[in-house]
């Protein structure tokens, strides 16, 4: 169950938002490899297919060939150089996507050990909205939440009040 899985707050909010907009009778293409949240979706009755780890900036074949009812993209677009290309390639009419928000007091995430685990984009909410709209999506619902830590310092205190995650439900308006 997601309550015992790190990061449980993000997973809990994401699952509640997903259930609000996508039925378990609909199939999902989840952008990104199988991960702990994929398993949570399956445990809650969703039928999920994932992309296979291909570089989505270069290869959108899985997306092009998908006949899923909905696409999910949880913390994936910030890793892409061109999320616009991926958003345009999606054939489904429903999209549930979340991104980390840019924090004015913290630089973009960059792993020192994993060359692929870096954020090329950290969006402000209006930037992500604009990207979706330009790619042919209409945002129906949106939500933000914080990501507090139990560390001591100014930045940990700011994380209690500053939203870190942004999730949207959008429907395709242009094909």
SSE layout:
Blueprint (H helix, E strand, L loop, with lengths): L7 H14 L5 E4 L5 H8 L3 E4 L10 H5 L4 E5 L8 H7 L4 E7 L24 H10 L2 E10 L7 H6 L3 E10 L3
Parallel strand pairs: 1-2, 1-3, 3-4
Antiparallel strand pairs: 4-6, 5-6
Order of secondary-structure elements: HEHEHEHEHEHE
**CATH superfamily, please?**
Vaccinia Virus protein VP39
Q: Tell me roughly what share of residues is in helical segments.
A: 25-40%
The number of distinct structural domains comes to 1
Report the span from N to C terminus: 37 Å
Largest sheet: 6 strands, mixed
CATH topology: Rossmann fold
Strands, total number? 6
InterPro entries: SAM-dependent_MTases_sf (IPR029063)
Protein name: Methyltransferase
Overview of the structural elements:
It comes from Algibacter mikhailovii. This is Methyltransferase. The chain has 175 residues and is of the alpha/beta class. It has one domain: Rossmann fold (3-Layer(aba) Sandwich). The protein is built from six helices and six strands; from the N terminus they run H-E-H-E-H-E-H-E-H-E-H-E. Strand 1, helix 2 and strand 2 form a beta-alpha-beta unit. The N and C termini lie far apart (37 Å).
């Amino acid at each position: 169950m997601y309550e015992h899985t790190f990061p449980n707050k993000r997973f809990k909010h994401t699952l509640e938002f997903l259930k609000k907009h996508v039925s378990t009778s609909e199939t999902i293409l989840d952008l990104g490899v199988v991960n702990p949240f994929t398993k949570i979706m399956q445990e809650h009755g969703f039928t999920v297919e994932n992309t296979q780890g291909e570089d989505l900036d270069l290869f959108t074949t899985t997306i092009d060939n998908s006949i899923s009812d909905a696409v999910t993209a949880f913390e994936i677009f910030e890793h892409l150089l061109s999320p616009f290309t991926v958003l345009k390639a999606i054939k489904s009419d429903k999209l549930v996507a979340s991104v980390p928000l840019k924090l004015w007091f913290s630089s973009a995430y960059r792993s020192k050990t994993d060359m692929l685990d870096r954020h090329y984009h950290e969006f402000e909410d209006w930037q992500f909205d604009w990207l979706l709209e330009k790619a042919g999506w209409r945002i129906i619902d949106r939500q933000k939440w914080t990501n507090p830590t139990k560390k001591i310092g100014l930045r940990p205190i700011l994380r209690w009040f500053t939203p870190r995650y942004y999730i949207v439900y959008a429907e395709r308006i242009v094909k």
